């Protein structure tokens, strides 16, 4: 399976990350309303918001290597590599895919089609 699947982290982490991103948007709107005309500062902060949204959507993706699931994150040093042999169970709970290892559960929000495809693939590989 040589495909990039875009994901978001589990629900609490996603809420925190997107809240910080929305703060930039609200600052942009606050600047616009405070100055009462659309200024360059408003445009710069609004542009920063758009850049942050694009980064959050395009930098989080899953790739499958020979024997590993790789969860790429916003910060490359935090990329998580999970060996197929370490995955104990793959389940779907409340719309998210849960990868359970011995010490941790990884919650991943995916599109429905991608979630089903990844679940089927991982279920066949880890048995």
In short:
The protein has 127 residues and is an alpha+beta fold.
Output the keywords.
127 residues, alpha+beta, four-stranded antiparallel β-sheet, 8 strands
How does this model look, in words?
The protein has about 130 residues and is an alpha+beta fold. The chain has helices at about 10-35, 40-60, 110-125, and strands spanning about 5, 10, 60-65, 70, 80-85, 90-95, 95-100, 105-110. The strands form two sheets. The chain has a four-stranded antiparallel β-sheet, with no helix packed on it. It has a four-stranded antiparallel β-sheet with strand order 2-8-7-6. A hairpin with a 7-residue loop joins strand 4 and strand 5 (about 80-85). The longest helix is centred in the first third of the chain and has 25 residues, at about 10-35. The radius of gyration is 18 Å and the shape is elongated. The two termini are about 15 Å apart. The mean pLDDT is about 90.
* Biggest sheet details: 4 strands, antiparallel
Percent of residues in β-strands: 25-35%
Oligomer: single chain
Summarize the helix and strand pattern as letters: EEHHEEEEEEH
Report the helical percentage: 40-55%
Number of helices: 3
* Terminal Cα span: 17 Å
Q: Could you say which structural class the secondary elements and strand pairing correspond to?
A: alpha+beta
How would you state the average pLDDT, rounded?
91
Spatial strand arrangement across the major sheet: 1-3-4-5
What does the overall shape look like? elongated
Rounded to the nearest angstrom, the radius of gyration is: 18 Å
């Amino acid at each position: 399976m040589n495909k990039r699947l875009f994901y978001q982290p589990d629900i609490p982490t996603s809420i925190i990350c997107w809240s910080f991103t929305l703060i930039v948007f609200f600052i942009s709107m606050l600047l616009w309303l405070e100055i009462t005309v659309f200024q360059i500062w408003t445009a710069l902060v609004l542009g920063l918001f758009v850049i942050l949204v694009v980064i959050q959507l395009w930098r989080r993706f899953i790739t499958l290597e020979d024997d590993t699931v790789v969860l790429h994150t916003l910060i490359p040093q935090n990329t998580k590599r999970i060996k197929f042999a370490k995955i104990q169970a793959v389940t779907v709970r409340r719309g998210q895919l849960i990868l359970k290892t011995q010490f941790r559960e990884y919650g991943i929000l995916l599109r429905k089609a991608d979630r089903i495809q990844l679940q089927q693939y991982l279920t066949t590989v880890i048995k």
